[in-house]
Design a protein that fits this description.
The protein is α+β, with helices and mostly antiparallel strands. It has 2 helices and 9 strands, in the order ααβββββββββ. It has a 6-stranded antiparallel sheet with strand order 3-4-8-7-6-5. Strands 2-1-9 form a 3-stranded antiparallel sheet, with no helix packed on it.
């Protein structure tokens, strides 16, 4: 079952809706997952798509959760020329929700810094089995 925009407005917080559906940005250093050190998966709050592993997260000092690579096939990149800048937008490959941007200044061997809004993510902790308790959500 695919959710329409009115249903998404009810499902998501107002901040999540502004970021995920209207391409806003949360204030730096305010996100609930910025300092998360748990082991697991970061997923899309709209559709449940697995986006990033905690193994790829690093502290960039920018105020948003940062990752050096995404789960293969989980995201799409789009050119973003808003705010008089040329950037690369990161969206969920499943539902098209805005997640953040990617930059070519990462400190690891990938050279990437996926700068992702914390409210555009949910975290699934790895259980004792070593697997996440993941459920695909309906759109």
């Amino acid at each position: 079952m695919k959710l329409n925009e009115a249903e998404l407005k009810k499902k998501l917080t107002s901040q999540q809706y502004k970021v995920l559906r209207e391409k806003s940005t949360e204030l730096p250093f305010t996100g609930k997952l910025l300092y998360n050190k748990g082991r697991g998966m970061y997923i899309c709050p709209v559709c449940g798509n697995k986006l990033f592993s905690s193994e790829t997260k690093f502290d960039s000092g920018t105020g948003w959760p940062s990752f050096d690579k995404a789960i293969p096939g989980a995201i799409k990149l789009k050119e973003d020329k808003t705010l008089f800048m040329k950037r690369t937008e990161v969206v969920c490959a499943t539902c098209g929700s805005h997640l953040g941007h990617v930059f070519n200044d990462g400190p690891t061997n990938t050279g990437k810094r996926f700068c992702i809004n914390s409210c555009a993510l949910e975290f699934e902790d790895v259980g004792k089995s070593g697997k996440t308790n993941s459920k695909k959500k309906d759109l």
